[in-house]
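Tutorial handout. Part one gives the primary structure; part two gives the three-dimensional structure as C-alpha cells.
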Amino acid sequence: MFDHAYGSYMKHAYPADELMPLSCKGRVRGQEPNRGDIDDSLGKFSLTLIDTLDTLVVLNKLEEFEEAVRKAVSDVRFDNDVVVSVFETNIRVLGGLLGGHVMADLLKQRGEKMQWYHDELLHMAVELGHRLLPAFNTTSGLPFPKVNLRYGIVNPLSRTGTESDTCTACAGTMILEFAALSRLSGESVFEEHARKALDVLWERRQKGSDLVGTVINIHNGEWVRRESGVGAGIDSYYEYLMKAYILLGDHVFLQRFNTHYSAIMKYISQPPLLLNVHMHNPTVGVRSWMDSLLAFFPGLQVLRGDLKPAIETHEMLYQVTKQHKFLPEAFTTEFRVHWGQHLLRPEFAESTYYLYKATGDPYYLRVGQSIVEKLNTYARVPCGFAAVQDVRTGTHEDRYMETLFPNNPSFAKTIRDGYKYLTGVGRALHSLPEQKGVYRVRIVAEVGATPEEEAVVPHVVQLISPPFLGRTVLTAGPAKFGMDLTKQEHGGSIVKVSPYTACGPVDNAAELKGRIALVLRGDCMFAAKARWLQQTGAIGVIFIDHREGSNSDETPLFQMVGDGDSTEDITLPLVFLFSREGAVLTAALEEHHNVDVLLLPKERQLGYDKMEEPISMNIKLLLTQEGEMEEISAGGPTLQFVLENEEVFSKEELIGSEQQDGRTQPCSADSSQSLNSNAGPET
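Part two.
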C-alpha cells in the first residue's frame, strides 16, 4: 500500500506538494482551483516527500530514504512567496525534516548508509523554523495562524497578518517540533516561543472548569469561541501536553495535562460519547454531533493509562465505521452521518494500535485488518488512495491525505460487549422519558439456543506474523479441558519443545516461558504433557499428531480428553493439529524462526465471515397503560417500546382484531378508521 501511494506521488506528482490521485498529477499552489484554508498546507516545498522521509526508514526502505534525502537537500527551497499555515507547516514539514534528520543521523552512526550526510536536513529545519518565528510576534505570545515564508507578517508584501484569531490546537501544537529543534540545534528561541504560547493557553483556561475554548484572540487572549471538547480545534493541544512530558520530561506539562484530563472526564466524557460543552458552563451541551478528529483521544487515554473509557469510545467509533465503511468527518449522537467526507485520517488507526499494544487483545488486530481492507477496497485508485467525498455513496475526492496495562485480551472484551449494538438501534443510549398519553409495550423475550447434540467445535491455528498476516489458517481440534477458547481466544509466539514428546522434565523450559509450545502426540497422555509444559511457564500448547500423513480433510476432528483424573489444574489453552497441518506450522517456524499464532474457534478467525446461528425465541406482548407496568411480573430481560400519540393504535383496534381460520389477523383499513373515529385525544 505504501509503495502504491508513495510510488504514485514520485512518478506523477513530485516535486509538487501533493498528489491528485484521480487526475494522476501533482497539486501545485495557484495552478489548481483554490480550496480555501485547506491549501494553506501547500508551500511549494514538496510536502509529501518531506512528510514521508522517516516512514521510509520505519519500513526499512533505506535505499529509497537515501535517495529521498538527496532530493530534499538538492531540490527543496523555503524562500517562497507563499502564505502557509503555521500549524500544518510545523507538524508536517518541520516535523518531517527533524524525523528525517534523526533517522539519517542514526543510519550514519551505524556505518551502513548516509556516510555523506552532514546535518543538511537539520540546517533546513533551522531555516524553516526562523521563517515561522515571525508568526509569534504578537502582544500575547500566541502565534498568527498564517505566515508568508519569504516576507513574514509585517512586510507589506506578506499578504497576511490581518488575522485576529487562532484555534487552540493551532497555538498549542508547536512544542514537540520547536523544542526538538532547539535541543538539536542549540538555538533556544524556538522552544521559548512554543512554551510561551502554551503558558498563555494555560493561563486563559476557565479556572472554574479547567476547560479551554476552541478559538482565541491572538492579541488580547480573549476567547472567541467558548465551546470545549476534544475534537477539531482543540484536539492536539491536549495530545502535545502529554507527549511534551514524554519527550522532554518536564512535569509542568504532565500536571497541566492531568488537570485538563480530569475536567474532560468530568464534563465532556459521557461514555462512550465525547460531547462538546460550554467552557464557562460545562453542564450545558452545545451541539449534538461529534467530529472524526476526536478518534485520537482513546490512544491518548491509553498513553495515560486510562483503559476503560478508551475501550468504550474506541468501540463506539468502530461501530460507526462498520456502519459506514469509514468514519465520517462528523456524526450525530445518534450515529447518523453529519458530514459525509472521509479524508483518510489516521487517528482511529492510531488509537487501535495503542489499544492492541496495551491489551494484547487480538480483537484490535482484526479492527486494524478491517481498516486496511476498507482502504484497499474503497479508497484505492490507480494513482494512489483517494479521499471519500461521501461515505454514503463512496464517491472519491481528488485528494491524498495523510506495565501499566493488563496483558489480558479478555479485559477489553468485557467492556466492548456493552456497546455491541450501539448503532443498530439508531438512537443514543439514553432512557426514554415518561410522557402522558403514551402506551408502553412490554416485550418479554425468552431466548435460548435450540438444543443440539454436543458437537466438536472446529478450532484453528492462525499464523498472524509476517509474511503470513492471517492468510495461513490450520484446522485444529479442541480439548475438553484447559482454557475454553470459545470464550477467550489466545495468541503468542511458538517454540518447539525439547524433548519433542514432553512426557517428562523439559530441557528448554526457559525458552518456553511466555510462549506457545509445539509438542508431538504419543508416549503419554495429553494431560500429562500439558502439566509438564504448564510448569515451564508456557502460555499454550499445540499438539501435533505423530501418525504421518493424517490430515483434517480425511480424518474427523475430535476433542482431546483428560487422563481420568481431575484436570481442573490445567489452565492452558490446548489445540490439536493433524500431521499434515502440523508440518506446515513446523516448516514456518524453521524458515522464519519467529512465528506468532492465534488459537481460536474457526468462526472467529481473522477475515472469516460467519453466518449467524438461528435461535429460538418466545415473545409475549402485553399492552398496558401507564402505571400498570410495575404490576406485571415476568422473568428475564424486557424491552420497552414507546409509541408517540399520533403513532399508536387505539385499544379497541388491538382488541378488535378479527379471528380468521383460528389465527389472529390485523384489522382492515376500514375497520381501523371507524374504530379510530371514537378515540379521544389521550389515546
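Part three, for discussion. The mean pLDDT is 85. The radius of gyration is 31 Å.
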